[in-house]
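cron nightly-structures :: item 1 of 1
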Amino acid sequence: MNNASYKDKVIKGTAWNLLGTFLMLIIGIGSSVLYVRYLGSQDYGIAVYITDMSIFAVTICSLGLGTYQSKVLQQLNFESRYSEYKFVLIHNIKSRFLMVMAAILLIIVAGEFASDTVILKNKSAVIFLVIFLVIQMLLAVLRGPLLVEYQQKFLNSLDVGLLLARLIIVLVVICFNYGLIGFLISEVIVEIGQLILLFYQFNRLVWPKIRDVQPQEYPGIFKTSLPMYLVDLSTKIYSKEYDVFLIGLLMGSQSFREITIYSLNYVLVARVFSFLGLGTSSSASLIMNFSSELIADNKAELLKRFIEKQFKMFVFLVLPIMFGGGIVGGNILQILYGKEFSDFSAINALFFVGYSISVSSFIAKPILFVLGKEQALLKIRLLLALVKTVLLLFAIYNFGIIGVAVASVLIMSTSSIIEVILLRECINFYFPKIYFIKILISCVVMSLCLLAILHSINTVDLVRLLLCISLSSIAYLCSIYFLKPLDYEDYETLNGFKMIQKLKLNKIILLFCSSIDQNQSAKR
């Protein structure tokens, strides 16, 4: 496969990811705003707790086979080894099904012995939790092979269509005043619709390849998937779902308002990044699939250039989001969800900083998996997961959700930095320091512009806030354009005097001085 076809795959996959995440951002925020304002922070917190618990439980039941599947199926499909492909897929389904059945039994038993402050005592909540758990398991099994087939167009179109359906159902629930139960039923209907469409696409694209072949054993599945499972589990401990799980478990029924506040702050930040295709599972899967093909095809140099471009794009997009989001994130939250959230801008700013750093993990981790560095990732993530659990237990009892946010940001940032360093040791990719400095200067210019505009506005509404963001973004791009003469190849050799020459600042200074002399001569 030539370089052009590799490039074409990445560009098409990334383009569909960006389009899908953009539409999902708009529709998702719209539906969440309606639900928060309709249900209120207490009932919305219950709904978030149920869905987050199901997502966390799916990870526990996965045995690492989801990540293993993404890594192995890509190679087997590339080499047309469909007998082993079928074996891995069947093994994945059987193992996950057994684990989910065990998890359901555990949830039912735990509900019998739970205290009244724990949501598992609520029979309706347990029923919806079990349904979500089964559906999420089946969705995870079906999406993996479709990602291997580079079906980003279909998957993103499906996600957008389902969000539109969810938005329509939201309006129905509100119009007929069905309340929390109506919300949960609508979520089940949408997820079942997604499951049917995924099964149709799987049956059309994947099943014909493996239908008539006999499964041939692929050795070492559990030996390889177990470290991946522990990495996935520790990664999920870094996530919002684990934070929400502990908040609800330790703070009881009084915690659902705090869960809503914490969740909306986190989700808003995640959606802002996903708007640019950053920090999403789709982008990570695309990077993993592409890296697997490059390694299988012995394209080490191309992989190195691919990583360099990924990190340059990361710095170009992430730094301005971190600076700008930290300034206006609280205003966005208040405008969307109400004045109830006006006192929690500090949490929002913390998440913008932490998530900005952690996005690098969505580049480093999938490539490290492909390079076979599961054991190193496992040691890092297990240690930090243990540290985070201890910090969360201390923070929840002493500082509430602000302490949880600090602990979460600290751990996710530390883990991501270590993973990038590990990737740098495996693949000696080049990243020019002056490029980072150039972007950093532009971010400072953008931030000053944003603060000046906000200071001059008496009241901040959605239109004015969008205008502020647009003007500051223009300032950021103009600053980068002004610094453009610093070409890549000269980065490491430029000294201060050459920089001034490159930027033509000396001509600007001389022109300014000559204009002053002319003014003084005219006065005389």
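cron nightly-structures :: done
Residues 3-61 form the longest helix (59 residues).
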